[in-house]
Amino acid sequence: MTTPSVVRARKLVKHFNDLAAVDCIDFDVAAGETFGVLGPNGAGKSTLMRMIGCISLPTSGKLQVLGLDPAADGPRIRTRLGVIPQDNLLDQHLSVKENLTTYARYFGMPRGQARKRAAELLEFVQLDRRADDEVQPLSGGMKRRLAIARALVNDPELVLLDEPTTGLDPQARHLLWERLHKLKQNGATLVLTTHYMDEAEQLCDKLVIMDRGRIVGEGSPRTLIETLVSPEVVELRFGALPAQRFAEDLEGVGKRIESLPDRLLIFAEDGDAVVAEVYRRGLSPASVLVRRATLEDVFLHRTGRTLVD
């Protein structure tokens, strides 16, 4: 028997005047998975998250969240959501603990239960020793963990995270990843946007890549890498010489060659075999790197390298 999707979209559209911010997309988020939404600025990620969060209604198409219709059941859905926006939006006039207990009261939670829940969550995000501290002096990573704790006050079934680790140092990012892994192990479903490809590879079971409102790639990180690019990438640099001039000499090598101003990228099943062929054809690159293909390679292949304003 098929498990119902926590989020289900069919031919989902959101227009702002003549702009299609989300343009006829389909996807499903299964219970208990971490689902990523990737894309350049202006791709439609934030608009999609606002629709899932019942803040903005679709222009057309069908959207179900937790089996309900956001247009008719927005308040019921929101009581079962945890939302972590890009900005932490913490109350600077309250203590760390009070940021949680006060927020819990919005859900009608009795004071005693709110205090107990706050204590549990502060321990979960490793802020229990800072419970009585003011918010303002906390580091960026601590504030982000507090924002996550606040979003979990109502024990949500679905948690929406909009770029959860932007601006954090590596230590804070990895600690946050650990907390999100534990949250998933406890049964929550996570939907997140991120600009960090390594984060998406670490956290996401499945993801979609959006560009100009449409989905241009969908699947697990590993499946996307294997089907849309290749298992390995060879990077060739030719010192001061423009790399593009050597592209014709390597025609037919690997699955695909991408010319950049400073290097050539050759996507292939076997990077070492490509390197051998490069030298067999008489080329002598200044440097050679064979590496595993990454989600960033997929992202740039599907959305391009040109900045979009």
TrEMBL record:
<comment type="similarity">
    <text>Belongs to the ABC transporter superfamily.</text>
</comment>
<keyword id="KW-0067">ATP-binding</keyword>
<keyword id="KW-0813">Transport</keyword>
<dbReference type="InterPro" id="IPR003439">
    <property type="entry name" value="ABC_transporter-like_ATP-bd"/>
</dbReference>
<dbReference type="InterPro" id="IPR003593">
    <property type="entry name" value="AAA+_ATPase"/>
</dbReference>
<dbReference type="GO" id="GO:0005524">
    <property type="term" value="F:ATP binding"/>
</dbReference>
<feature type="domain" description="ABC transporter">
    <location>
        <begin position="7"/>
        <end position="237"/>
    </location>
</feature>
<dbReference type="Pfam" id="PF00005">
    <property type="entry name" value="ABC_tran"/>
</dbReference>
<keyword id="KW-0547">Nucleotide-binding</keyword>
<dbReference type="InterPro" id="IPR050763">
    <property type="entry name" value="ABC_transporter_ATP-binding"/>
</dbReference>
<keyword id="KW-0046">Antibiotic resistance</keyword>
<dbReference type="InterPro" id="IPR017871">
    <property type="entry name" value="ABC_transporter-like_CS"/>
</dbReference>
<dbReference type="InterPro" id="IPR027417">
    <property type="entry name" value="P-loop_NTPase"/>
</dbReference>
<protein>
    <submittedName>
        <fullName>ABC transporter ATP-binding protein</fullName>
    </submittedName>
</protein>
